[in-house]
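A common beginner's mistake is to predict each chain separately and then try to dock the pieces by hand. The better habit, illustrated here, is to supply every component at once so that their relative placement is modeled jointly.
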Amino acid sequence: MRAIFSHRAIWPVLALALILIVDGIIAPSFFAIRIVEGRAFGNLIDILYRAVPTGIVALGMAVVIGTKGIDLSVGAIISICGAVIAWRIHAGDPHVVILLLALATGLLCGLWNGFLVAILDIQPIIATLILMVSGRGIGLMINLLYGGTDPSFESALLQGLSVGHIWLVPTRLVLAAGIFLGLWLLMRKTALGMFTEAVGGNAAAADLAGINSRLIKYSAYLISGFCAAAAGVILTADTHTSDPVSVGMYIELDAILAVVIGGGSLSGGRIYLGMTLLGTLVIQTLTTSILTSGLPPEYNLVVKAFVVLVVLLLQSNNARGLLFAVVGERKK
Amino acid sequence: MNEKYRPLIATIGVFIALFATGGMLYNNFLSTLVLGNLLTDSSYIIITSIGMTFVIISGGIDLSVGSMIGFVGVCMANLDAAGWHPLASAVLMLGFGTIFGMLQGLVIDFCEIQPFIVTLGGLFMLRGSCFMINLDAVPLRHPFVDEFANVAISLPGGGVISSSAMVMFVALFAAILIAHFTRFGTNVYAIGGDRTSAALMGVPMRKTTMGIYGLGGFYSALGGVIYALYTSSGYPLAGTGNELTAIAAVVLGGTLLTGGVGMVAGTLFGGMILGLIATLINFNGSLNGAWIMITSGVLLFIFIVLQRFLVGSLRMGSNSA
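With all components supplied together, the output reads:
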């Protein structure tokens, strides 16, 4: 029994199940999926659909956190990428090039973060804070490049990636699955994953074992920048405009939460990609459930904080010990 | 010269250099008027940053302070509408802030969860509570708000030290006493320097952790009170993102995020540097708000790199965070 309860997957899975059960009790139609005009509709689809940007960001975050780092700048990167997309569309570039440009922008931001963390040895939280503080300002400046005109745009390609669908499956789910698969192969089928966890566990020891810890850290921030850019493309295409001030607001916090709910420790050394996606789903299911349950949306943040706290408490050995002790007393 | 004063002197140097730059660029910049306004405008953020300084010196972080500012304001405004005197509601909110912070400290220590995550929960909880209370700005109508705003010490040259700035200085003085002349202060530095050693040396970890975050909660609540009196309203979105401003102020003030090194006095100048950037850009008039973000980021970058290389002897880059 204890072995089951101390498995890392159990608490997020239980949390997700519990939320869904409550949903089912409140509204049995919660799980209904309708097909209208060749597209699937329903709360479950909606949860997956909305979880995609945070999920992609969280995957990159999981790798960074695996190296004992953190990337606070992902929201700012999304903002910059959105501004770049709108700017180049107004400049009339081919949209495939723009997609590549946006991803390259993310990599460039990752290059900057990696430079600060891996080369200058600045603490990750403060190194990425720099871009977090200034990134949305950079986005605003890019919007001014074409004279402050309306930054909204239309792009069949980008919007196809964001809100389009292949048969019944939303395209963005396919994108997320692709990124997950790519990262999973990179982290589990090549030595990079092992090296990354080694660097996160103990960078000095990893160095002595012949791993270039700087290079590993650098690649983690590049991966995170790339993931943030992919999420930026989806979010920006979704709104048809570049809104540097509010796009992806607090997404870094949600992504970090997803990693932690998924069992990743901020002290590094572990990368759980699948569990991270599960963590994202817990957060998004909770948000969607609050919205559909009829509770005022103002309750969203408080309930979210509460659930997160409970999941974290259950993951903590001390708190669980206390809980078992109390329950044990009752049984006697 | 004592090594530990180097970051502080560097911070003061940057502040003076920025102020002198303003003086060269604009007439009437070098005046007590500008200085007084700067102190008034940044007092709430400096007060909040003082609490953050303790948290960061101990090697932790407190993300809940921005939401605390908003929450305190909303509560004060609603209590004001219910007929409370602002001072009474302020005392209540200071008590609330302290207890909330201590609870965060308890969870951090007892459950061994990273401060980042616990206080992130605090951020969501307090901001969400703001929205649950009301969604619009509520004015503070009690006459005390005006009386408070009118208390000021005149300076030669037309400037004033406002009541907000006075509260800030008292808070700063108290913080310096706590940090450097009490056993609790020594314990904070010890935990930040090396957690394990501190625990082995008999530093009461749970009590101290609760004290640190309690202090963080108290100072952010005080910042919220000052902000509410200063704007004479409670707005549920007030203080959004101020946790980052506070962290930036602390870092600019020469405190290392690795913990164990830093001075409360530096935070005063760190906060004033950030305020000065905004003042300079407002003086220019043709630059927009995006420049404030970018300049703050650039300055943060320069400062961190300077710290990294000039003050390298102070355990920087040990990469042990």
